[in-house]
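Hi team, as promised in this morning's meeting, here are the two structures we talked about. I've kept the exact order from the run log so nobody has to guess. The first one is mostly here for context; it's the second one we should focus on when we meet again. Sequence first, then the predicted structure tokens.
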Amino acid sequence: MWPFDIFRKKKSENAEETQEQTGIVNAETQKTILGEQKDSATFEETSEFNPLSIDSVIGYIKTQNPESSAQDIANIITKLSEPKEDQDHLTPEGDLPWGWRTAHEKETKRYEAKYKKMWSAWYESRYSSPNTQLEALEAFVSYMVRTKKLFEKKGECFNYWRDDLFTDDYLEKLSKELDDLKANIEKLNAEYEAKQEFEIHVLPTLRENLVEIIRENPGILQKDIYKLFDPIAKAYIQEQLYSASKSNQIEREKSGNTYKLYCK
């Protein structure tokens, strides 16, 4: 009997073994076979063939084929390590078949790289204008929709693995975010432009202007100062007044849910 048959039989008897246990061949194994001289005892036939032991496999091959070269042995073991399970369908337990991830590693890594690129573009766009955010999110959601359809066509294993990239819940969440962004794009653009205008023309002299207002209106309430500026300025005003207080330019006196402000 050729070792292929024994290996397959043993493998079916040990179905619970992990891919790491059953994968007996790697680059280091081939290097050992091809590059190092094996002791003759290594090739002696063992009492029981163990397909998970490299020495047991080599010994059996040499016993059956004494003339086998090191390259012949390496080729046979490489062949033995190839998965034979159905690679197009999930296991009865609903998992990927043995060897699927290894067999499709190059392809899945390409999908992972593309997904990461699309995700990064969308994430970085959140610090840009609403129009830029919309463009990036549209492209990202469109990519996910196309990828989902593609994997559904490629079969249940690819569709199962797709959850490693993104789930249906995540796609639904970003699709809703995209719809909200589209519905409010005009308002968001107006707010963004007003903020840009404020940061360019008002923010550079904001503290100076606040101190002047307080000097001319001792005891003015902080909440009343907000009313003198555009609503988008509130957070900037809070920051500037707090900083001015810490640098002893002004004094803040608690008054209800706000402060009375004085110059020092």
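And here is the second protein, the one for discussion:
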Amino acid sequence: MSPSSWLVPLTTPSYSAPIGAVSHATLDRTFFALSDSTRRSILTRLADGPATIGDLAGPFGLTLNGVKKHVMILEEVDLVVTTKVGRSRECRLGPAQLRDVTRWIGSYRRAWEHRLEQFGAYVESRTASDG
């Protein structure tokens, strides 16, 4: 087995199949929302239960407007939902299921697993023929 035979380009049709009705724009917005450590920390905090914008601002040392901007980005992809409660806004985890992102990542995971299996077989065949 030659080295080129175990290389499978990521453009192989079996690994780049469409992932349903998910658009690249949806994935882009979701990955953008998750790309910031403050936004990920907000999601981690909200996993413990609802919090107001003010509650979220404290630990991060951000202004209320700074936190609102982060929360709005998370709201755009349904990772967070806010509701007005009295004079404040309460945030909680939204209904977004990360199935689309998980499916997209899974397709690449399967491609790399396949590549590694082929590489392992190549190494074993080389070891057997050398030994």
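Starting points for discussion:
The two ends are 16 Å apart (CA to CA).
The CA atoms of residues 2 and 33 lie 42 Å apart.
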